[in-house]
Design a protein that fits this description.
Elements lengths: L1 H11 L1 H24 L9 H26 L11 H28 L4 H30 L5 H21 L13
Family: Belongs to the peroxisomal membrane protein PXMP2/4 family.
Pfam family, one: Mpv17_PMP22
Main location: membrane
Length: 184
Amino acid sequence: MAFAWYRAQVRMRPMMTQAMTTGALFGAGDVIAQTIAKGKAPQELDYMRTIRNAGYGLCAFGPAVQVWYRMIEKIRFQAYPKLDLPAKILADQVIFTPVHLACFFGYHAYLEGKSIGDALKQKFWPAIRANWMLWPAVQMVNFTLVPAELRVLFVNVVALAWNAYLSTKAADSSENHLQYPRRR
């Protein structure tokens, strides 16, 4: 019943519905990061951090990913249809993902009054490498098995844990494994 209602909302108001869903799930990912990864009790949560994450999901990622999926759906190789899926995954991972991660870390650095350049140096490459270990497989399922109007929802549900990871990385600048790789 609720799923049918949600699907109807996606068809009637795709941008608003998917942006709101994304905002809620980005916020939920941050709450997961703070409670599970950081062991905070509800009264200890940094609610401004949660609002920043939800705001990014609502205003940036939600609308952007919906437009991106409409664009990427147009990738078609008439002579070689077996290339459609790898081309979509490749485009997603080398075009959309780097832009999204740079915007995500830059957004958080800016709102926290930190250096955007330093945030990107410390966090971008570790995050993109972690992304490449998970998201190509997720997108293979997404682009082959999930109906087009539900792809943003599917990605958002899978991304609960991923958003917890990103939220932790955006908030924590002291962990050694987040440092930009130094050349010797």
